[in-house]
Amino acid sequence: MLIDGSWVDAASGATYRVPNPATEEPVGSAPDATVDDMRRAIAAARRAFDEGPWPRSSRHDRARVLTAIADGMERRKEELRQMLIAEAGATYLTHDIQLEQPIRLLRNYAELALTFDFEQPLPVRVTDGPLGTVVSSAIVYRQPAGVCGLIPTWNFPLFVTVQKLGPALATGCTMVFKPSPYGPLINLLLAEIVAEADLPPGVVNFVTGESNAIAETLVSDPRIDKVSFTGSVATGKKILAAAAATLKRVHLELGGKSVAIFLDTDDLDVIAPQAASPAFFHAGQGCAMTTRVLVPREAHDHLVQKMVDFVRGVVKVGDPADPSTFLGPVIRDERRRKIEEYIESGKQEGAVLAHGGGRPKDLPRGYFLEPTIFCGVPNHIRIAQEEIFGPVVAVLPFRDADEAIRIANDSTYGLGGMIFSRDTARAIELAKRIRTGAVWINNGINLIDTPFGGFKESGIGREGGRFGMEEYTELQQISWRA
Asked: Which of 1, 17, 29, 386 falls 20 to 30 Å from 305 in CA-CA distance?
């Protein structure tokens, strides 16, 4: 682990085994930290913020460090790639967002460190009061938020970690990372790269472990000013409650049950792969994946058949180390069993299983599932309302655009969504009626500059671009008599 600029083992000496989800063989082991380890990391980050130079570092210093980390990732890209395959089960199909995009994000945060408006002048105001006429000038200054407790998730580990690391460094914060117990090794590899970027001790700390107690310590410790968490709604609610005692700033990026609305269906061969993608892309393990496919009622059966034909004929299930594999494993056996519970509930609650639903018979080892497609799905049942986080897609028919919008908004989530239409202007107007943090039209996706986050139970706050920078600052007004 990286604590206060040094590499350390857990105080107890304990480690835990990390399996390859495709083979069930060990990838390696990670330190299994104690609460005392976490407290040492928090103390280091607090000291680095209160006494160290980083919060007062120049824009150029911050940009230089971020660029150095991006360059380090570029140099060690193949090591990172192999770890993503082995630990996260990341197929080559996912490697642009898993590996290339995090490097691009860091370079963008380096640019933002140079260009972000940390100071904004306000209008000069003239007021009359008991002491006469006063002319006042003022600025708004964005201070660093302080010491940040950062808890990324395991599904896109570099992407999610960088979306916290980049803006936190660019704004002058210090931090403690507590990676998911499912993904410690890729985070420790990133920590090696960070440690080579000439940062003062304690600015960035990484603490790994299986115990919930270390995460609970991080989010409840009064020395932590801000918490950023990516993960489940249930855990997000616990973090919000734990942070309330000290009124920490909290950012939560939680789950989703996003829709893909297909308004034009005259070329089903083209749209079927897109509609089916949550059944194979990273085994459906993505919070913003469009796991509810909405299609005009008259095209429902034909689209479902095209989706089934595509996954049956094209989607290869297997080891992600094979570049030809489309669908790799889910992350753990306990996750596979939970997904299987959802599949069974779909069958019991009246959805039609069009394809898949089981374990591939030719893959006895590894946490594999077949790509699974349900059709004729009522929107009120569990597989349409709850986040499954597995290779399962539900197809729902709609009568008209108004009903499609009603279905889209009939959810406790509000993270993402897609609309496919030749009429972009109409799609934009429909997008404005969907209560989600993002709507992508015809696959127009910008992950560099745009804010990412959700409405409703999909979270609080935003990541990405200047919007992510703002989340790591506190507003201070400074006024003076002119």
From this structure: 386
